[in-house]
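Reviewer comment 2.1 asked that we show a complete input and output for one of the modelled complexes. We chose the nickel (II) ion case, as it is the one discussed in the main text.
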Amino acid sequence: MTFDTPLVRSSLDEVADEAKDWRRTIHQYPELLFDLPKTAALVTEKLTEFGCDEIVGGIAKSGVVAVINGTKGRGRTIALRCDMDALPMAEQTNLQHASKVENMMHACGHDGHTAMLLATAKQLSANRDFAGKVVLIFQPAEEGGAGARVMIEEGVLERFGIDEVYGMHNQPGLDIGSFAIRSGPMMAAGDRFVVTINGKGGHAAYPHLSHDPVLAGAQVIVALQAIASRFTNPFDPVVVSVTYLEGGNPGALNVIPAAIRIGGTIRTMQTATREMVEQHFREVVANTARSFGSQAEIDWRPGYPVTVNDPVKARAAAKAATFAAGADNVDTDWPPTMGSEDFSYMLDKRPGAMIWLGNGNSADLHSPAYDFNDDAIVHGVRYWLTLVDQRLNDSAGE
Ligand code: NI
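Response of the prediction step:
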């Protein structure tokens, strides 16, 4: 078993340089959610130029999938996935390649993810020294649109016969050339809620003639904190944040309003906990409101599921990263985060793993000062190629 194949031995400097240009072009023209005509066109153009065996566009509106067959015969089919969409926010970097579109910005590095996967496609097309096939998934709408789920609903996993799925996201604060991963839950489920509390309005001087939804709402907000502190195991992290509160009228301070609204987000790290927390949430909200003479109307908005790395595939990903970057540069016990990620839908359906790629000392993700670090490109591409080599050349592998 050796991974010193032409696939990973080739110099990546040239393709990384090219990818930097693609990345900066994509960065200048950020697009949102499912509506990525420019980005998808650039991706399709490059994939066509590289000579991929199959290129299918228009999946989940702007998603693009490319297939590259190895020359060593039958084998596994692995999918490498990137996200392509940007965020509705104004860039404040003053960089030469800064966004040219008002209030749209690649503030999560999906421009870099796309460029790295394109560079990987170029290398793999030119050197197919592997068995089976590689499916490259360029996905829209990671930022709130569940693009991964829509691609799955449109049959992407079955249509291309995908056995395993792998994802990569850049991580500010992690050194350039470093990787981080963990087995099991890696990112949280992020659900949201809006609750309308309907009471009975009236004159504030005669509260006994009303059912005050403001007091009921205040009790609900406090009671919700007991879900994390009293209902769940302290070693199983849960976050309940009420972030929105609306009701009454500052021009009518002597009026008890008829209704108020509260909203927020709940983060959990286990699917079973997620279900338990939702059930408690509904009971706490309904019963607390009722005990103050009000009725609660709950609008529960399910978000992305928990991102769970399959233990065997996480080990395979760590092995590839270790080969690509050296053992000293791979943290295999990276703490889970309360952020969420729609690659979780793919990991729900197929075994696989998501890995963090160091973005160096950059501004945080979703910050107006953020920029993907082009120096990370070469490392990300080497990881992808090594992963392909190890998963598709190692017949003894798990
Ligand atoms: Ni992102």
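The CA atoms of residues 46 and 81 lie 16 Å apart. We note this here for comparison with the apo prediction described in Section 3.2.
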